[in-house]
Structures are given as C-alpha cells and as structure tokens.
Write a structure and sequence with these properties.
Oligomer: single chain
Strand order of the largest sheet: 1-2-3-5-4
Order of helices and strands: EHHEEHEEHH
Radius of gyration: 25 Å
Shape: globular
Largest sheet: 5 strands, antiparallel
Length: 183
C-alpha cells in the first residue's frame, strides 16, 4: 500500500526560450495536481528566472534538469546545469543605480523576494544546482493520500413530477439516447 502519492517531478531540457515556457506550464500543472495552487505563481516565476539564467550564462551547453519536490512543509524547486560557475548576486548600494527599464540583472533578487530561501551549490566538478524553497500551505501538510469523497448535499427542491409516466419521461437525463430508426 502506498501511503503518500508521488511528490517528486523531474524535467530534462535545453534551456531555450521556447522550452522555458513549456517547463513553466509543466510546473504549474504539477502543482495543481498536488493541490498546491497557491504556490503556482511564485514557483513559475522562480523556475523561469533560474532557467533564464541557464540560457544566458551556462557553458558549455544549455542542457539542464528541473526538479520539484514537495516535502512535509516545503516545496523545493531546483535547476541543475553543466556550468560549475556559481551565480553571483550583484550588490546594489543605491537602488537609484538600477535602470528602471533594465531587462536583466534582477532574476536572483526576484527569486529571493518570492521564496522562503534559495541558494546554489556545486554539483560535482562540472556543474551546479541552484534552488529555492516555498512554504507549503497548511491545508496540504497533513493531507491524506486519498482525501475522502465529498457527500453530495441534499436539496430541498421537490423532485420533478411527470404528467404521464411514459418510458421517455421516466428515463433519467443522463440515459443514452435511443434511435427512432430501426437498426
């Protein structure tokens, strides 16, 4: 008997702009499947930023592995690539020094802003893993593997009354249609 459903997902890809959008949709769908809808926006933003960094900076290739894992109290999203250089967050002394329309240089700051924690670590001699965590919502921390089915609430509306109890009138609305043409 399996007491916990799978809470791990891995996607291997080339970090190209067209693939980044696909992985963002995969992560969103997986989180919906795990009933973690409240984490979708932050996880999608974070994974987009990490994959964009792989696309822009990773050498010698753009291949990487995205891994999402749900543990008891947190979701961890990580991106593993083949470039051993760890990311460096630019220190900004004066926020006025940041160009308001700059299109790069803020990715890891955004990851830090939307996550509980983040970091990077070497992965062997030829790669690294950059990761971030999000706190799991309280409603999913103690969720059973198969939640009980909801009972259908009874209504107080009276049942429909048929004037003439013909076979067609007694048939439930979801019954298959019958053909008038002899087959």
């Amino acid at each position: 008997m399996i007491s916990h459903p799978s809470r791990h997902c891995t996607v291997e890809l080339q970090a190209l702009p067209s693939r980044i959008g696909q992985v963002r949709r995969i992560v969103s769908a997986q989180l919906r499947y795990w009933h973690m809808d409240s984490l979708i926006d932050r996880a999608a933003l974070g994974v987009t930023e990490l994959l964009t960094n792989v696309h822009r900076h990773a050498q010698p290739d753009k291949s990487c592995i995205v891994e999402i894992e749900l543990q008891l109290d947190r979701l961890t999203v990580s991106v593993r690539d083949h470039d051993p250089r760890l990311p460096v967050v630019a220190e900004v002394v004066d926020p006025a020094d940041i160009a308001p329309l700059a299109t790069c240089g803020r990715g890891l700051a955004m990851v830090a802003a939307v996550s509980e924690s983040w970091g990077a670590r070497p992965d062997g001699d030829t790669g690294k893993v950059v990761w971030f965590t999000l706190p799991a919502p309280a409603s999913t921390k103690q969720q059973p593997a198969h939640p009980p089915r909801r009972a259908v609430a009874e209504t107080t509306a009276p049942a429909p009354v048929f004037a003439e109890a013909s076979p067609a009138a007694r048939a439930p609305a979801h019954a298959p249609a019958r053909s008038a043409v002899a087959g």
